[in-house]
Please model this.
Amino acid sequence: MISLAEARAHVLDRCPGPVASEVPLADARGLVTAATVVAIGAVPPFANSAMDGFALRAADTVGPPADLRIVGTLAAGAVPDVEVCPGEAIRIMTGAPMPPGADAVVMVERTAVSDDGAVVTVAVEVGVGNHVRSAGEDLLAGEEVFASGTTLGPGHLGVLASIGCGSVVAFRRLRVGVLSTGDELVEGPATLRVGQIRDSNRPALLALLDEMGVVSVDLGLVADDEEAITAALLDGVAECDAVLTSGGVSMGDFDYVKAVLDRIGEMRWMQVAIRPAKPLAFGLVEGVPVFGLPGNPVSSMVSFELFARPALRAMSGHVDLERPRVQARVVGGLQRHADGKVHFGRVLVEYRDGRYLAASSGGQGSHQLTAMATATGLAVLPDGDGVADGDLVEVILLG
Model:
């Protein structure tokens, strides 16, 4: 057996690096910038009102109340065509440009307008710049907006739109295929014959890919036929940046996928000192990473978390490859037996009174997918007899 660290290093060292491209802003959420973004203009581009109210000269509000003549109205998007002179005010809406002569805004709630609409009485004294958004207050022309390596969220896209970016140089979104093989696998609600099971790995893996923001490609369910599996794998690597399969990677297994991958790829078949997810195959087929994950459903998902997900994040340009890890207080104990492996227990994690708590989510067999489905964390259990009630354990947070 090899260590988890050695297996991960083998995978990460052989995956290709991220590829940069010009990406439309509408398609960029979750991508990582591949170049520094610089503002081409100021944001906001002009001084404008932060409130509905009246634009005026701050000096005219000294010793309130002050009666000022209303000389116009400015809506957002309008161009000022009247200068505010001493003793005057302009009705102004939020976002409207500050008119010449005005240096402050008084919010409408602190004013009263005469019955004929000609005079506004200002009830407060304000300083220069009151409720005024200055030009360049958010960004100045030439200022760095986002560094290379920034993961773009909704707010980032809003900022990019505000500086006129219709696209951004980012590492492109990966396409990752998922293939299921085996005569024993079926789909849908039909009654199972003896020896048949429903394919749960492919839907779960496709959903995990969707969750991490890559394009998941369903390569389908292929029967145990070497020619058909060869065609499916070659089609997959031709259209995808990586391919996931599950099953047929244990020592001593004879599986059509193993035979095909050994023939068309440069594969390494590993036994990793972990449980679940001990068997792992990884290699390149025509330069495209192929992950051979274990067939048991829990093992398949845990293997994805430990190997495929970090590798795919690296290929997407991310620097932080890991899910968050926390120290949690164990509730009820997490039992295991000594076997020379690190175990990953499926746990429910709760944050209460300033600390994390972790309790078993149910059956810990690699075939017991329900406990994996409800788990919100993987407890890292070192070799030994487990972790007692009340002790601390490291937990990988899921979701």
